Amino acid sequence: MTTLVTGATGFIGANVVRALLAEGAAVRVLKRYGSDMRNLAGLPVEIVHGDVRAPVSLRAALEGCHTLYHVAAYYSLWTRFPDDLYSTNVQGTKHLFQAALEAGIQKVVYTSSVATIGLPADGTPGDESLFLDPEQAIGHYKRSKILAEQAALAFCVQGLPVVIVNPTAPIGPWDIKPTPTGKIIVDFLQRKMPGYMETGLNLVDVRDVARGHLLAAQHGKVGERYILGCQNMSLRDILLLASEISGIPAPRWRVPYRLALALGYACAGLTYLTGKAPLVPLDGVRMARRPMYFSAQKAVQELGLPQSPLDEAMRQAVEWFREYGYA
């Protein structure tokens, strides 16, 4: 039977496709007209044109499929048109899952985000038991992913067998856009990071994230969430790791939060005048006030999620960005 992957041209999606092909799966990808196909060049996949925002196009894409990996999302901490985030991430998910329900899809893996997971007040890592209220979310991206996840859970009640995975901050090859985490690495390689904020992320090898999708389809429980992560690291330690691998000195100046916030507001004001993406996204600064640390123990114990060394993932990311001309 055929497996459909949405978002296959993106970072996580391209790695999911490669993991499926390595397992011998017949892979069909949903591609929007005009999408950048470099991440899928030379791969033996069936391409179907369509868009999650266009329900009519989804029926043909799902025909004859057994499993659906819905990886597609509009991932940006800034956009001139916030409605686009909701039409893709929320309405698009509803359109696709309604079509999947009607098509009788046997298993759905939905790629959510740790943006939907709350952080404990005592500073300990967040886990799958903590649901972030959309009214408490910082920015339209987080809010849209929370609403989309709620929609996915509602389809479970209707009988669609959805398993939810929540990747943390993946690094590795094929980060074509790049993602906000990848942009940290690119900015560092381009020597555009004179300082750093006192914050942190949970890093994970993107290939482990891809493998986690397949494990979720095999072993995940319908209606459950699984954090696909690995190691909690301060931003300073992330940059030191990038420095060790790239040979570029890590920044030593710690940027105070108030200064970073002021820069965020200044960039936001400049953005409204120029229409260009801000150098310092305000939502990114606000999110960074608290380290975004999470626990992936549930996925490790119930799915067998790999925990590959992050030095190799960082090496792969640095080499890929350099090979493809980002730095």
Total beta strand runs:
12
CATH fold node name: Rossmann fold
Q: Please work out how many helical segments DSSP would assign.
A: 11
User: What is the residue-averaged pLDDT?
Assistant: 93
Q: What is the molecular shape?
A: globular
- Measured between the Cα atoms of the first and last residue, the distance is 41 Å
Q: What can be said about the biggest beta sheet? A: 7 strands, parallel
Q: Please give the share of residues in helix.
A: 40-55%
What CATH architecture label applies?
Answer: 3-Layer(aba) Sandwich
What is the chain-wise order of helices and strands?
EHEEHEHEHEEHEEHEEHEHHHH
Q: What multimeric state do the chains show?
A: single chain
Name of the level-1 CATH class: Alpha Beta
Strand content: 15-25%
- Poorly predicted runs: none
